[in-house]
Amino acid sequence: MADIIKTYFDAFNAGNTDGMLACLTDDVAHHVNEGKVREGKAKFADFCTHMSRCYKENLTDMVVFSDPEGTRAAAEYTVNGSYLETDAGLPEARGQSYRLPAGSFFDLRDGKISRITTYYNLADWTAQVS
Question: How does pLDDT run across 78-114, given as a tens digit for each residue?
């Protein structure tokens, strides 16, 4: 099951939202850092559109873990990014670069991702772009 996680992150790094969506169940639950849970592929796609407008990110130093049953997985990585357009409630964007550790947790069902929970340190990010 770790293969679906690798496929998902490869699509992320390629800027391929459709490739990411293909890895998800229709009822995916997307838990974002400092935000509300988004349910369903349509809301996830909207989130990706927003993120692509405001940020350009590449994930490196990826380590993926999965349970023996293939129902849960986790990934730890480094986010290397540029802040492209001011995001509501956040500092003004001026093309600032940032680098921070992050992690994601996944539920897996029928060979696809049914839950994504992502964590990073917002205070660290804010300090880097301020």
Answer: 999 999 999 999 999 999 999 999 999 999 999 999 9
Looking at the structure of the chain, the number of domains it has is: 1
Query: Which residues lie closer than 8 Å to 67 by C-beta, 6 or more apart?
Result: 73
Domain CATH code at residue 124: 3.10.450.50
Contact (CB, 8 A) for 98 and 129? yes
Burial status of residue 111 (CB atoms within 10 A of its CB: 0-12, 13-18, 19 or more): exposed
pLDDT tens digits, one per residue of 26-38: 999 999 887 889 9
Domain residues for the domain of 77 are 2-129
Strand, coil or helix: what is 78? strand
**Structural element, H or E, at residue 105:** strand 97-109
Instruction: Report the relative pairing of strands 72-83 and 55-66 from DSSP bridges.
Output: antiparallel
